[in-house]
Design goal:
It is elongated and about 80 Å long. By secondary structure, the protein is mainly alpha-helical. Helices cover 54% and strands 0% of the residues.
Length: 69
């Protein structure tokens, strides 16, 4: 990738024309927000499952552990 960039944007390639590559702010915002929304959509069911696993109504076995130093 670096070799391609150096090749296409070298000084001798386009002496008369300046580079027309610009930042596209709207595109950058979109490709930042869409993955964030996807992560939130994945996290919501994960949190529900995590809280459901934490709730034990009536355990069949209780272990009492005592540690001495």
């Amino acid at each position: 990738m670096l070799t391609r960039i150096v090749y296409h944007f070298r000084e001798g390639h386009n002496k008369s024309l300046p580079s027309t590559v610009t930042h596209h702010t709207a595109l950058e915002i979109v490709w930042t927000i869409i993955p964030a929304i996807i992560l939130i959509l994945i996290a919501i069911p994960s949190f529900a499952l995590l809280y459901a696993m934490d709730e034990l109504e009536d355990p069949r076995l209780t272990i009492k552990a005592i540690g001495h130093q």
